[in-house]
Amino acid sequence: MTDGKESSLSAMEKGNLALSISTNPKVHLAQKFLAELVGTYCVVFAGCGSVAVNKLYGGTVTFPGVCVTWGLIVMAMIYAVGHVSGAHFNPAVTITLSLLGLCPYKEVGFYIVSQLLGSILASGTLRLIMNITSDAFFGTIPAGSAAQSFVVEIVITFILMFVISGASNDDRAIKKHGGIAVGMTIMLNVFVGGPISGASMNPARSLGPAIVLWKFTGIWAYIFGPIIGAMIGGFVYKLLTPTDKSFSNIVKMSRLSFRG
């Protein structure tokens, strides 16, 4: 008995035994809810705020400035709370991750509610502190037809989810650079899709301003387009991930090449 205790103590001293208490305590759902709410609030406040300021003050931010603002705030929030909630900030991302088995189904509803609430609160704050007119609407409205915006939202959200899957969710990725990759992707997508659809890529981003300012023009395109695009992007990237079958094939091929 003494020898067993001594061996256990020596092993612990050497760091060979796992600690009974995890060094990474479990994050409670309420903490994830708060992280998503605050993160989405900051994203919408900064991103939509740059849009409103640019319209109210004669293009002082400029369109490139708006694009950069969206990319920077998303990147900042990913690094701020990504380790708490995963930094979704987007119902389309949450839904897709749940379908891929990366987010528990029981948490999806809580995530979406927190994201919508964060967007609504941010939009309400912007309306409170700025003289928002119809010309300074910071939501998303189709520049052409709603169908055109719908297609654009599918394409740019596909690109976004594809990058998220590769840069942040794949174990083979260098995850410390994930926030930069996602932020840059959003910035580039706003450059391309902004003049056409407003480049939402996020149902919560569009619904918040629409609810606060009660303006729902073409809103269906900004709800279903990002969800469809995200699901396609997530599942297409999944085709690039190795499976047990593909790994066994690689082993077999390496053995054959070695024998040859």
- Radius of gyration of CA atoms, rounded to a whole number: 22 Å
Strand content: under 5%
CATH homologous superfamily heading: Glycerol uptake facilitator protein
Largest sheet: none
The span between the termini is 55 Å
Q: Quote the average pLDDT.
A: 86
Number of helices: 10
The ordered H/E elements are HHHHHHHHHH
- Report the count of strand segments: 0
CATH level-two architecture: Up-down Bundle
Q: What CATH first level would be assigned? A: Mainly Alpha
Low-confidence stretches: 5-23
Given the helix and strand composition, which structural class is it? mainly alpha
Outline, from the CA principal axes? globular
Q: Number of folding domains?
A: 1
How would you describe the overall organization of this protein?
Residues 5-23 have low confidence and may be disordered. It is built from ten helices and no strands. The chain has one domain: Glycerol uptake facilitator protein, CATH 1.20.1080.10. The protein is globular. The protein is mostly helical and 260 residues long. GO terms for molecular function: channel activity. Keywords: Membrane, Transmembrane, Transmembrane helix, Transport.
